[in-house]
Design a protein that fits this description.
The complex is a heterodimer of chains A (about 220) and B (about 220). Chain A is an alpha/beta fold. Chain A contains 5 helices and 13 strands. In chain A, the strands form 2 sheets. In chain A, strands 4-3-2-1-5-8-10-11-12-13 form a 10-stranded mixed sheet, with helices on both faces. Chain A is globular. Chain A starts with 5 loop residues before the first helix and ends with a strand. Chain B has a domain of about 160 residues: Glutaconate Coenzyme A-transferase, CATH 3.40.1080. The longest helix of chain B has 12 residues. Classes of the chains: A alpha/beta (about 220), B alpha/beta (about 220).
């Protein structure tokens, strides 16, 4: 099966989601919260001035990461990365910030995941190995954002599938996933069923099935990306 | 006639720290390295009081920021949401040396706000059915399940602001605002560390984020 190197895989995932947000923002201003890792990379490929990034530590209108010259140690995003302002940005306290999330004002969140399953359940907050002790805003984001996008490589670094019939790790939110984007495929949840809508042209449907234990329907209008 | 209102709240850091007692539940603001009261936290490692319960978003990094409290052996329990930046928290928890109450960040923030505004608790969809449900009440509203989150009160709140006027009205700075305004409401005693203290009347009333009714003690940041 065709293998992408890690850098290319991540870039493909980020670009695909960025394209969707750019499209969506043609009709209305779009408010998006990006998690750490591949989700953060999405911002680099958004080709629209009408996508506004929300950081749960209290900022709307987050700009690109700061370079040394403009670096302000108190201006950070939720991943503790030093960032910049955009025109029209604003600051608010943590309860207002999560009010935006829980109150359904944030259009989409993009998060990474350890596992996702065919019911749209996602596990991304803890691997119970005694080394992790933190949830952050993961559960609020998965529960409150209008649309949850999973941005992750199709299998783990050890080659283990991550899109499963049933998550084994502790769940962050039940039935909340709207779209999964990996380097090989795009899946959507429509009426509680997982649909394969896009597949990369470098692999076959059989090869995809081989690395995707979850049950899914192949869309009648399957596209290639 | 002298119209100038001088501050009744300005204290030295030594006097401010005398207000903290063993066993206190202490809220400390900040997210990562932004908006935490660094001078107050440093001073807290040196007080006689111990067995403290620290209520904060995170616990800094190992022996850095709030992490120094753990190193100094001041901590009995933690209430917060993200300790992955400081692996010493998991170590101390696994060793049975401290208790940790993990609450999703949004429920944590709203719980603090609730304590500050006289609300006993609220229901949220966040964490329903997850490992963080922790036996709390689940109730249905309009056919959907919600989880009870009780208010999170504190004896003391240590916060940080950019500018205070002499009354204790506070203005913050960018993402250093985070938990400060809500902790200012939730602490029974609120000690604010500020970079600058200006005369009453020099802040635009529209720009004040925390009205001085919430603030008890002002400490001037030394650096």
């Amino acid at each position: 099966m065709y293998l992408f190197d890690e850098e290319t895989a991540k870039k493909r995932i980020a670009q695909r989601i960025a394209r969707e947000f750019s499209e969506m923002s043609k009709e209305k201003d779009l408010f998006v919260n990006l998690g750490v890792g591949i989700p953060t990379m999405v911002a680099d490929y958004i080709d629209s001035k009408r996508v506004f990034l929300h950081a749960e530590n209290g900022m709307l209108g987050v700009g690109p990461a700061a370079c040394d010259r403009e670096c302000d140690p108190l201006l950070i995003n939720a991943g503790r990365i030093k960032v910049t302002e955009t025109l029209g940005c604003s600051y608010f306290d943590s309860s207002v910030s999560f009010g935006m999330i829980r109150g359904g004002h944030v259009d989409a969140t993009v998060i990474g995941a350890f596992e996702v399953d065919q019911k749209g359940n996602v596990a991304n907050w803890i691997i119970p190995n005694g080394k992790m002790l933190g949830v952050g805003g993961a559960m609020d984001l998965v529960t409150g954002a209008k649309k949850v996008y999973i941005a992750m490589q199709h299998v783990s670094k050890k080659g283990v599938p991550k899109i499963l019939t049933k998550c084994k790790l502790p769940i962050t939110g039940y039935g909340k996933v709207f779209t999964i984007v990996t380097e090989y495929a795009l899946f959507r949840f429509i009426e509680q069923k997982m649909h394969l809508e896009e597949i990369c042209s470098e692999i076959t449907l059989e090869e995809l099935k081989g690395i995707t234990p979850a049950e899914y329907v192949v869309s009648d209008e399957l596209k290639y990306f | 006639m002298n119209n100038v209102l001088k501050s009744l709240k300005l204290k030295s850091i030594e006097d401010a720290m005398k207000l903290i007692k063993s066993g206190d539940r202490i809220m400390v603001s900040g997210f990562g390295n932004s908006g935490d009261p660094k001078m107050l936290v440093q001073a807290l490692t040196e007080v006689d009081a111990n067995d403290l319960t620290i209520i904060s978003n995170d616990l800094g990094s190992p022996n850095e920021g709030l992490g120094t409290l753990l190193t100094a052996g001041k901590v009995k329990g933690l209430i917060g949401n993200y300790y992955n930046w400081n692996p010493e928290v998991a170590d101390e928890f696994n060793a049975g040396n401290i208790t940790v109450d993990l609450i999703p960040q949004g429920s944590f923030a709203e719980g603090i706000r609730a304590a500050g505004v006289g609300v006993a608790g609220f229901y949220t969809k966040t964490a329903v059915g997850t490992g963080l449900e922790n036996g709390r009440e689940v109730k249905e509203f309009n056919g959907e399940k919600y989880l009870l989150q009780e208010a999170i009160p504190a004896d003391v709140a240590l916060i940080s602001a950019q500018i205070a006027d002499e009354l204790g009205n506070l203005v913050y700075y960018k993402t250093a605002r985070n938990f400060n305004p809500i902790m200012a409401m939730a602490g029974k005693l609120v000690i604010a560390e500020v970079s600058e203290i200006v005369p009453v009347g020099s802040l635009d009333p529209e720009s004040i984020v925390t009205p001085h009714i919430f603030v008890d003690v002002l400490v001037k940041r030394s650096c």
